[in-house]
Amino acid sequence: MTYKKRLALFVGMDSLFVLTAIYLSYYTLHPYFHIFSYPSLLVSSITLLVAHHVFSSIYHLYQKSWRFASVGELISIAKIVTFTIITLAIVQKLALGEVYVRVLMITWMLHIILIGGSRFSYRVLRNLKHRPNTTKKRTLIIGAGSAGTMVTRQLLQNAEAELLPVAFIDDDIRKHHLDILGIPVLGAVSELKEIVEEKKIENILIAIPSLSKKELQPIFNECNKTTVKAQIMPMLEDIMVGKVAVSEFRDVSVEDLLGREPVELDISSISKRITGKTVLVTGAGGSIGSEICRQISKFSPKRLLLLGHGENSIYTIDMEMRNNKENTFEIIPVIADVQDRNRIFDVMDQFKPDVVYHAAAHKHVPLMEYNPKEAIKNNIIGTKNVAEAADTFGVNTFVLISSDKAVNPTNIMGATKRFAEMVIQNLAVRSKTKFVAVRFGNVLGSRGSVIPLFKKQIQAGGPVTVTHPDMTRYFMTIPEASRLVIQAGTLARGGEIFVLDMGEPVKIVDLAKNLITLSGYTVDEIGINFSGIRPGEKMYEELLNENEMHKEQVFPKIHVGKAVLLDMKIVLDLIDGFEDMGLDELKRYLLGYANKKYVESLVEGALV
């Protein structure tokens, strides 16, 4: 129906309702009256009709969508009717000399009933028409607040929705035993399992957008006690900007359970370092490197250099950057190996970047145990090449992506990352370039992470392989790690080792159990096998040893460490002689100088 037709329909209906209300009020008080024997009826009818339409126009009664009518629309109707009756009372006093109070009271009541009833009857009839059918999944809504109510209303009104709300649970005891939109609030989260069984629940929906990551874990633990799938509603911010619909629910993810609350970045300081500048990211095709590129793109650099050895991974991130219409800066893919010193120097000379994020590295602990010389070439010599090129061509800031495994390393990968830190620490002493390292632990979903491995094992029907029941690791999401790396670069003065706050360590076996449950299985169905600790692995990871620890944060979730500065001769001797060393000799050298137990007896260091 067009707006003009709709307007004509409502004006005609309301005119009929207004005249009916005034006529019935007279008839109620004087059942045997004759219309023409009451001149006041004619005056009152005309006044009431004109006043109603005037106030309806003022309060936009004819622009409202009655499909979504609620208390706000009812209040508008009450105001229109009340002001209309007041206007009629004034006219009666002026024109007729008296106010017919009883007539006005009955007219006011009938007026509201007829106008309001005509509007709200549409919603009632529509709800009856779309009455839920029995083929929908019986759904329990966790959270009886405004978000839960909004979701429930959408599900009840949407005939195409697959979910049927049958009950709420909420920890607010004031809501218990109440009905919201006809749906009962049956109890608290602690009663979830019993309610699921009693109400034959087939789906659980968590509808608390304000829920923190920490608060989600106990709720999910209660959901885990059932065999019912749990979903979570989108963030209100995403709904408001139209990114997703209210009814677009998603499964709870490992990131939801292990991630932390996002930290607010210092946008101003990051913009000063990146906006309008040339930025080089090595290892740009990797998990961390590619996410750093995505985060950097938000700050409009002048030029972004995507450097990597693998052409496929660089092609992928290059296409992603170019396909983003918001990226108006120059994007240059650079195929280069950080071990090729001449090539790296040529790149630095040609593009003269202002900021370098060095993410290129070998990171797989077990693989590097079998290939220590490759670890040295890539992690130590590669870092030395990129860092010295940055120093030579006047790069302002150089950020090395390091690892928690560089602390008291028991494996080749960790030891080579500690040697890489030594390289930039020594350069920081004499260079105008600000050299810093950023240490953090495992990132969820990165290449080599246990998450993709566990998912493949679950898809294959299990079992999931965990090295040891007490094995723990720190975890953070790739976007969070990348944002904090960029923020740490703005804090650089030269020589620091920044450490990202990884939160609480997580048992790998608990991670495996959560992932199995999230995949729709039980632990008994998939199974968990313990394979034993692999070569070079630690049971527990560290981010700083006791000699390096600064407990206070220099920025939310960022600490700065006091790292021992070692003689660069140790690094140079390794580079000169590692090709001639045997495997055992090489491991002793690397671990001996990288581990604190040997450092103190070998070198008299200074604190940075």
Automatic annotation (TrEMBL):
Record bears the keyword Transmembrane helix: yes
Alphabetical UniProt keywords: Membrane, Transmembrane, Transmembrane helix
Domain Polysaccharide biosynthesis protein CapD-like: 279-560
Transmembrane segments: 7-29, 41-62, 74-94, 100-122
Superkingdom of this protein's organism: Bacteria
Any Pfam family: CoA_binding_3
SUPFAM superfamilies: NAD(P)-binding Rossmann-fold domains, S-adenosyl-L-methionine-dependent methyltransferases
CDD domains xref list: UDP_invert_4-6DH_SDR_e
Isomerase keyword on record: no
Family (UniProt): Belongs to the polysaccharide synthase family.
Name listed for the protein in its UniProt record: Nucleoside-diphosphate sugar epimerase/dehydratase
